[in-house]
Amino acid sequence: MTGHDDLARFTGGSIATRQSRLPLPLQGLHRAVLRRFLETGSAPAEDWVRQAAAGLGLAGSAIGELEAADAIHIAGGVVAVAYPFSGVPTRHLVELDGLPAVHAMCAIDALGLPFMAGRDGRITSTDPRDGAPVVVSVRDGAWSWTPASAVVVAARAAGCGTGCCSFEVMCPNTVFHASRESAQAYLARRGDLDAEIMNQQTAVERGRWNFGSLLGATS
Question: How far apart are CA 46 and CA 162, in angstroms?
Fold first, then answer.
């Protein structure tokens, strides 16, 4: 299985690690944004985030600090990015038991959501090469993939330095494929990605590592 040092090669460090480096009040604001997505299924408005920040005694710079940490990003007056959540529709739809459906930024983010929320659920996505459906479910800790041959490509746009944010260079390129052969054909055609084809167990572990602790600490 891929080790955590190898995971960081593609992620630049997990969002859980980036969150842990924030001052405690900012960690609390970040978790408030994540919970809002989880509970409503919708992107929080920028004004809502500002009010939440004020309620935590944070200054007006709080949103900018979360953006600088690549934790959230505002666009068009709403939270467009709050890993694992996307404020706009993506190919990765996640339906967790008892909660509204949400869109994830990428395949790994989708796999991390059940860990973060502590809920069973289902992920529906499509293979970017030919549109073939991929469905991943988790129930009582057991993961089921359809088709059984499905894999995940974790990829980063080649040539991008450390200044690039995950949503720019990784999220569009980290996707489900219906088979390893499909993933290999897709990557051969692209030629512009620093990529790894991940088996199911490794991809699930990546999701847990990135997102499992995001809501677990005291805010």
Answer: 27
| CATH dotted code for 88-211 | 3.30.450.410
User: How many CB atoms sit inside 10 A of residue 18's CB?
Assistant: 18
For 41-98, the pLDDT digits (tens) are 999 999 999 999 999 999 889 999 999 988 999 999 999 999 999 999 999 999 999 9
pLDDT in tens, 23-32: 999 999 999 9
Q: Is residue 156 classed as helix, strand or coil in its secondary structure?
A: strand
Q: What angle do CA 23, 29, 31 make, to 5 degrees?
A: 105
CA distance 58 to 211: 24
The fold of the 15-86 domain, in CATH, is Arc Repressor Mutant, subunit A (1.10.10)
What is the chain's alpha carbon radius of gyration, rounded to the nearest angstrom?
A: 17
Domain ranges within the chain, ordered by starting residue: 15-86, 88-211
Question: Quick check: pTM over 0.70?
Answer: yes
Of residues 84, 120, 75, the one with CA closest to residue 102: 84
| The three-state (H, E, C) secondary structure of 115-130, written as one string | HHHCCCEEEEEECCCC
